[in-house]
Amino acid sequence: MNLQELEILEDDFDLFVALDDHEKIEFLFDATQIGLEASVLKQIAKLDTKYDEMTSPMPTKQIVRSSDFEVGNTRLNVTLTKTEVYLNSNSLKAIRKFANKMFNDGLLLWPSSTKKSIFDMYRYFKAYKIITRGAPISSN
Asked: Which residue segment(s) compose the domain that 95 sits in?
């Protein structure tokens, strides 16, 4: 196929415009050698890997949710991430009670080695890693 016989349609032209000069030459060469469709697919694959390389080093934001609960007469702060649960309270009994409640609700928890920070305003702190989420456990 010659360059004179090459017909680039609107969608292919949009891809062609997105390429840099070196890639445009490669695109035209491949279009004449292996065909327009194969050349388009090859350049799309290259742009896809280039985009993945640009976005992968960027850290993803971790979604954190924090709520206050009242367990008996004690306030309990629960901070929940995708993989961990942090419990803060002035009562160790309230923390244990809430951890048991989460276990009965289907969260399999494992104690974490995370230590209390200066930002934790309550006396007691417990951290748990969420192993898995399952069906609630019956108390019967």
From this structure: 65-133
Assess whether 50 and 88 both reside in one domain.
no
Residue 34 within a domain: yes
Residue 139 — pLDDT band, cuts 50, 70, 90? low
59 close to 53: Cβ distance less than 8 angstroms = no
Q: How many domains does the chain have?
A: 2
CA 52 to CA 67: how far, in whole Å?
A: 36
In whole angstroms, give the CA distance from residue 140 to residue 136.
Answer: 12
Distance CA 75, CA 91 (A): 8
- At 36-91, the pLDDT tens digits run 888 888 888 888 887 776 665 656 677 888 899 888 888 999 999 888 999 999 99
Q: Are residues 50 and 72 in the same domain?
A: no
Q: Element (H or E) spanning 29, and its range?
A: helix 21-33
Report how far apart, in Å, the C-alpha atoms of 131 and of each of 8, 124, 137 are: 53, 22, 16
Eight-class DSSP state of 68: E
Task: Tell me which DSSP letter residue 7 carries.
Answer: -
The answer to whether residue 83 is domain-embedded is yes
Contact predicate 69/78, CB 8 Å: yes
Number of Cβ atoms within 10 Å of the Cβ of 81: 14
